[in-house]
Amino acid sequence: MRTLISTAFVSLDGVVEAPGGEPGYRNSGWTFKDVEFLPEAFDIKGREQQEATAMLLGRASYEAFSPVWPEMEDFADYKVMPKYVVSTTLTEDDLVSNWGQTTILRSLEEVAALKVTEGGPIIIHGSAALNRNLSDAGLIDRYHLLVFPLLLGAAQDRCGVAWRAPPCCALPERGSRAGAHYGWRISPLA
């Protein structure tokens, strides 16, 4: 069975949306505005790219990332790996042609079927609503959270729209520096 890994940037008050500067959000770009960049805190992101063998996205995140990520050197490893987009509305004509193999999945049942295929870990980027639904269905095996010591005050409801960690979690990996970012790797206990 393949491991499904949810990865997210998150503020202390639960903001997960628009960390990289996506337009239309109150705190857009909060991961790099007035925050000290600590390369060691972002090591988990490099390890994710090396470990992952496929990427899973929701429709909105696919539409945000696909015009930008294929040409970004920071995400070169993702360009060649298979991508899966969970959407009931996206069509083959909506897919970009310069980002490698992309398959549209229409349901959580199709995600569950993907998990039992041969292959390595599948990483989920962004995709707050998809993360919530996958968590509710018990399909996420591990969470990688890069927690920023910021209070932004305008999060989506973590029990509603945004991702939600399982109620019982182990925190096996934690990298920190006083007053800086914290990277946590969370695994459900049950």
Write the layout of secondary structure elements.
Layout (H helix, E strand, L loop, with lengths): L3 E8 L31 H9 L2 E5 H7 L10 H5 L2 E4 L15 E4 L2 H8 L6 E4 L2 H9 L5 E7 L20 E7 L6 E7 L2
Parallel strand pairs: 1-5, 1-6, 2-3, 2-5, 3-4
Antiparallel strand pairs: 6-8, 7-8
Task: Fill in the keyword field for this structure.
8-stranded mixed β-sheet; alpha/beta; 190 residues
Structure description:
The chain is of the alpha/beta class. It has helices at 43-51, 59-65, 76-80, 108-115, 128-136, and strands at residues 4-11, 54-58, 83-86, 102-105, 122-125, 142-148, 169-175, 182-188. β7 and β8 (182-188) form a beta hairpin. The longest helix has 9 residues, at 43-51. The two termini are 16 Å apart.
Would you summarize the structure shown here?
The chain is an alpha/beta fold and 190 residues long. It is 20% helix and 24% strand. The chain has five helices and eight strands; from the N terminus they run βαβααββαβαβββ.
The geometry reads as globular
**On the 0-100 scale, what is the average pLDDT?**
81
The N- and C-terminal alpha carbons lie at a distance of: 16 Å
Class computed from helices, strands and strand pairing: alpha/beta
Report strand order across the widest sheet: 4-3-2-5-1-6-8-7
Order of H and E elements: EHEHHEEHEHEEE
Q: Over all CA atoms, what is the radius of gyration?
A: 16 Å
Spans of at least 5 consecutive residues whose pLDDT stays below 50 are 157-182
